[in-house]
Write a structure and sequence with these properties.
By secondary structure, this protein is of the alpha+beta class. Helix 3 (100-112) packs antiparallel against helix 4 and helix 4 runs antiparallel to helix 5 (136-152).
């Protein structure tokens, strides 16, 4: 078919325009693809799916060239920086570790970012398998890095298995078992000693919001957004009873102190008290005008206090369900309400940015705890009743208050995101907070001083709680895991009771410790058997010439290597004076005493070989594929 000249020119122009549109479209698709990859990478980093060392900031820092940090022996705090020689590219396709100084530089960077696992593995990789062949320069540079990893890394076990957020994790009364509640519609039981899963509690048809052990440890109750609660047998993992009756999502679970009753709270504006024996409703607590956020028993089990979105907290008779008091004063929803240990007071936390102390007999306000910017997420009494801890989303802080007067004691400032919760240790000496910055943090409850950062979760931490003996912390996170952590620096070998007014005297070798009873009597403890016997006098015991103990103005004990000046340990808690800390003559064991006890015994790792062996036992065996890929990239880059 013939095409005349008049139609040929428009057709050619149309074809050119189509070609141009195709080219522009392809370029735009390519740019959007690259932008999407960047967005996904950033999102993965924020979600904790990529190590922090691969962020853009770290990449920018690394392009500037690695820096070798050399610690001066004369002044442990002084450091000098020197450029590191260019890396020789490795053969294409082969994996070869960079030189030791590069590994140690990367290790220091990762430790500074609280990525202790990667930091420790890199530092260990810098040391040859034959510890005796390590050069003095590498040993001197590796020692402080490895000590940093050991002293900062409190993680004991990662409880893996859930497919979605872990909303809550809690210990049983003995501290031997943990329960986790998850958005994956299951709860799970775990062995605390091994970190192994004991049972999967599968039966709910929506996310499990909370869980609680009975006080005898034989039962677990879970509550779910499927509008039910379930009672489980801890030994078998079987369902004992399904608690039906709520018309809305169930979000709180608790057992009465005597173990005979259970308590649930719901989005249907009610709470219910249930009989454990037959799973029947004992009382329905009706009166709130909006969903209930929390519900808990008083210490004697006779009353219940609830917190609601209607801006009130209410006290109820646990046996009859009768409303006793309405606590009015907050201007927005009340997130948490809790009794004091003696039941005479109630603490509440509200979205209006305040917490309040109330008289539980009259319902009058005792004190308004003002200071947070907005939305207070927690308000709880210490077990001894002397303190109240609050936490908030607005100012990214927790605050410590005097429970009697309501006056501020300290601001616990350190989280880089909202604080989701806070709780005391059973002895009221420590506080742990759960943060949106993916960490939990431990604080001194007397002074508010920061003690340690528990870093390792890849997403925000929802809850954190101490074990009954205070030695272990359990956290639950949006990253789908729960984790077990050591509370204190060092490895606590044991705790020895000591009489009021007692004091530490001296070590008699590494296995015997002499203490005073405060009545002029001397007792010697056999630390292997934990038996003690009285003696009339002591022979002088040579003090360690390797380590020294320094106590600063805040009462913090620091264990220092005399030769190098390096700090080997910072011990948790406040100590009364130099006699409260002793190092045994071999420099491997430490005894501490704060106030009237107990005596705590710690193992110290004073040599490079011992600390390396220990970290090889507790860290993963080798670098992950992603970590190896990153190291290969660094090794193949010529600066």
């Amino acid at each position: 078919m013939a095409i005349d000249a008049e139609t040929e020119e428009p057709e050619a122009k149309r074809a050119k325009r189509q070609l141009l549109f195709l080219i522009v479209g392809a370029v735009l698709v390519g740019l959007l693809g690259l932008y999407g990859v960047g967005m996904l990478s950033d999102a993965a980093i924020r979600a904790g799916l990529q190590p922090k060392s691969w962020t853009r900031a770290a990449e920018k820092k690394r392009k500037a060239g690695p820096v070798e940090v050399v610690q001066a022996r004369e002044d442990p705090e002084a450091v000098t920086a020197a450029p590191v020689a260019p890396i020789i590219p490795a053969p294409q396709g082969a994996f070869r570790l960079p030189p030791a100084n590069i590994l140690l530089d990367l290790a220091r960077e990762r430790v500074a970012e609280h990525d202790l696992v990667t930091g420790g593995l890199l530092a260990l990789a810098a040391l040859p398998d034959d510890g005796g062949a390590v050069s003095p320069d590498v040993a001197a540079a590796a020692l402080p890095v490895l000590y940093d990893v050991y002293l900062q890394r409190h993680e004991m076990s990662v409880l893996r298995g859930h497919g979605k957020f872990v909303r809550l994790a809690a210990f049983n009364a003995a501290g031997t078992m943990a329960v986790t509640a998850s958005s994956d519609q299951t709860a799970r039981l775990w062995d605390v000693a091994t970190g192994k899963e004991i049972a999967k509690l599968d039966g709910h048809e929506a996310e499990v919001w909370s869980a609680a052990f009975s006080h005898d440890g034989k039962r677990v109750m879970t509550v779910s957004f499927d509008k039910t609660a379930r009672l489980w047998d801890v030994t078998t993992g079987d369902t004992v009873a399904v608690l039906k009756g709520h018309r809305g999502e169930v979000n709180a679970a608790a057992f009465s102190p005597d173990g005979r009753r259970m308590l649930t709270a719901s989005y249907d504006n009610t709470a219910r008290v249930w009989d454990v024996a037959d799973a029947a409703t004992v009382a329905e607590l009706k009166g709130h005008d909006a969903l209930i956020r929390s519900a808990t028993f008083s210490a004697d089990g006779s009353r219940v206090v609830t917190a609601s979105r209607d801006g009130t907290a209410r006290i109820w008779d646990a046996a009859t369900g009768a409303e006793i008091l309405i606590l009015r004063g907050h201007t927005r929803e009340v997130r948490v309400a809790a009794f004091s240990p003696d039941g005479s007071r109630v603490a509440t936390a509200s979205a209006d940015g305040s917490a309040r102390l109330w008289d539980a007999a009259t319902g009058t306000t005792i004190a308004v705890l003002s200071g947070h910017d907005r939305y207070v997420t927690a308000a709880y009494f210490s077990p001894d009743g002397s303190r109240v801890i609050t936490a908030a989303w607005g100012d990214n802080a927790a605050r410590l208050w005097d429970a009697g007067s309501g006056t501020a004691v300290a601001v616990l400032d350190g989280h880089e995101g909202e604080v989701n919760g806070a709780s005391f240790s059973k002895d009221s000496r420590y506080i742990v907070t759960a943060g949106g910055d993916r960490t939990a943090r431990v604080w001194d409850a007397a002074t508010g001083a920061a003690l340690s950062v528990l870093a390792g979760h890849a997403n925000q931490v929802y809850t954190a709680a101490f074990s009954p003996d205070g030695e272990t912390i359990l956290t639950a996170s949006a990253d789908g895991t729960a984790r077990l952590w050591r509370t204190h620096d060092g490895i606590s070998a044991t705790r020895l009771p000591i009489a009021d007014g007692g004091s530490l005297l001296q070590f008699n070798g590494p296995s015997h410790l002499a203490t005073s009873t405060g009545m002029g009597e001397i007792e010697v403890w056999n630390l292997e058997t934990e038996h003690r016997y009285k003696v009339n006098e002591l022979e002088a015991s040579a003090a360690s010439g390797v380590l020294s103990v320094e106590i600063d103005a805040q009462g913090k004990a620091r264990i220092v290597d005399v030769t190098s000046g390096w700090t080997l340990a910072m011990l948790s808690g406040r100590f009364d004076g130099p006699k409260s800390v002793l190092v045994d003559p071999t420099g491997t064991r430490l005894a501490t005493l704060s106030g009237n006890g107990p005596v705590r015994l710690y193992t110290i790792f004073p040599t490079l070989a011992e600390i390396a062996v220990h970290l090889k036992e507790v860290l993963p065996r080798e670098l992950t594929r992603a970590q190896r890929k990153e190291l290969t990239r660094v090794a193949n880059t010529t600066r």
